[in-house]
Give the backbone structure.
Amino acid sequence: MNSLGLLLPEAFTPGTVGALTTALRADGWRVQEIRPQARAMDPTRLLPAHDLYLLLSSSPLALAMAGVLTARGAMVLNPHPAVIRARDPIVRTTVLAAAALPVPPSWTTGQGAALAPLVTAGPLRVEPHPTADGADVAELRDPAAARAYGAIRDRFGLPVPLVATRTMTRAIGRFWLEVVGGVVLPPFIGRPGPAAGLAVAATAALGLLFAGVGFAETAGRLVITGVDPVPLVVGGADLGAALAGLVRRRAGRLAPPTPAYEEVG
Amino acid sequence: MTPRIGFLLARHPAGRKSPIMPEVFAQLRARGATVEARYPEEEVVDLSRLEPAHDLTVLKSGGDLALSLAGALASRGATVLNPYAVAAALRDKILTTRRLQAAGVPVPETWVTADGEALAPLLANGPLVVKPYRGSQGRGVRVVREASGLVGERGEGNLVFAQRFHQPDGVDRKIYCIGGEVFGVLRAWPPQTYEDKLGEPFPVAPEMRAIVQRCGEAFGIDLFGVDIVISEGRPWVVDMQAFPGFKGVPEAAHRLADYLWAAAGRAQAAASSRTPYTRELEVATQLARDAGEVLRRHHGRPLDIARKLGGEPVTRADLESNAVIVDGLRRAFPDDAIYSEESPDTGERLGRRRVWIVDPLDATSNYLDGGDEAVVSIGLAVDGRPALGVVCNPFRDELVAGADGVGVTLNGRPVLVSACGDLARARLHVSRKEWGRGLRERMPEALPVEPVASMAYKLARVAAGLADGAFSLKPRKEWGTCAGAALVRAAGGRVTLLDGSEPGFNRIEPRQPMGMVAAGPALHPALLEAVRALEQEQEALR
């Protein structure tokens, strides 16, 4: 029997996970829901216990667990290194731009004041990375605002990276598409034609097997505004069914059985 | 050529300045290097125009922005020291601890949790050290002895990292490694002054040296520092850093300059040898020969046959050949990804520029039937394009090898695709399986076709001019086509899918989206048209 470990957040919409587990259990899969927040984990004793893991939580503990499992030879989807790259807006933007995909003009610095000359050409949206619940996100409309923004420091007084993007002042629409295994999930009817291809290309450029891809649409132009490698919270039953399909396809390429998993706490 | 070295640095307050890095810069410049010191927090970097500007980028800063920038530069092909993936892993104490422990390094018992109070029962066995899981330089480290010390502890990113506290027998040991040389410094913790940081040198005992070597091996680096606590006579590694300050190391600046000068030279050499793939061809050719010997050894003998999902056979010969190739590639090119038909695919390859795409035994069915058309196929895809290929048929003593910008050889002799442009006179190869499954009946008599097993072998024969063209109506998998496609291109031929587009490699799904046509440039257009007509006829029959 194949087995799947689901690394889940503490709270989530049940649609995706329900559809995923129902579909796989009907095929005879053993599916374990793992909420890494629930217990203290000894990473030195963590070993793979499933043929495959799906990383459906972006909590630091779930990411850490995915990293440790990967280092111990487990197959984790999305791949842990790809998730780390995609979650870093500096790396992500560089990768997408290098793949000739449309991203908004973007800069990084450690000092808000350094952005002042750029603000004269139009407003900038600035946010620290990582951001905590949107804290310190601001729109800079003039050089004075940039100078006043200053630097954000972490709890040890170290400067936090700032990522600034040109504000899409004329955006006529914003939407997300979900991609699983190179296929865009419905509904994308009514979305601009090239969006589906761009979403698939962005996912592949970052080495992801599934993701939510955010777009802003200006007059005649699409821009990729975000890539979420853990799109569970915006998904529904379609996403769950598509993920089940991805898991089945990957099942043909599984590693040999792995030793037992030990969790302590 | 003068090496260009860029340093990603953090600006420290005047009182915290160490003379070591300025001395390193001066020594590198004195040797002729171009040195640029960059302070990412003080710059504005345009991410859509980021390009590597140095032969070597040295990630010295422990800041998050420098790490992200190093990752962005690495994604654009820059050589980063220490490598971005290693530096990122070493910032994460959870991953670091697991990798060290797996390498046999003594690390304290370790726990992570989202709720610090969940650790309280562990205090029954002694105090804990609570640290930020992504911290450095001792920031936020504290010893917790009572449960009250855990109340409300949420940690960084709601993640609490704790290790068993081992009371040090004396001051801490800081051990530095520069290019395999190991230096020990006794240092009181936490250091208060620069003199405290210089500490006192001590000779590193052989057993401690062995521990430090295992730390380096766990991450594949030889420039790092580790913190070791001796408690009741036992050593415990409690931290590891990718590029520490090296304070207290005798002649630290001179040693670092030596190391970085050599690393920049290696980066330059690697860049200049990137094409024509000299070393890659040498290694892949030898591995293909070795794997071919494995196939020859098992040929004609009874083999246990397992079935993969989808029904394809797999034998001990496949797996042994795979082990020879994968182990050899991993040793020779540790930074490259490997995508083999007989190895689990973790998907990590998808974000990588250079991916070895391997079929350790293409045409297993023909092999099991005692045929002589099965081959070893080793390809290298760079940025999704087939760049290098080696195909070895050990039963006919044929080895075809080549790469972009190098050309192709058959058993060491330069070869080219054929110049034939007349379809009626062309020697064409098709799949034996497709031939036996109805293609024979539908093939126009005018087309001189010979069925041959193994897509890799068919493509290699086209590249070597032994056949004028080859095609498959069925979508073929990357493992059996990457090397062959690289060979046909390098020999001056064309390989396309049935819609005329070039096949991409290192895609999410292993199978190409449609069938494939390969031939010399004179024949390819006519062959593609003929194969499309066959495909349409096949569709109509369905």
The mean pLDDT of chain A is 83. The helical segments of chain A are 14-26, 60-71, 80-87, 89-98, 116-119, 143-149, 194-205, 237-251.
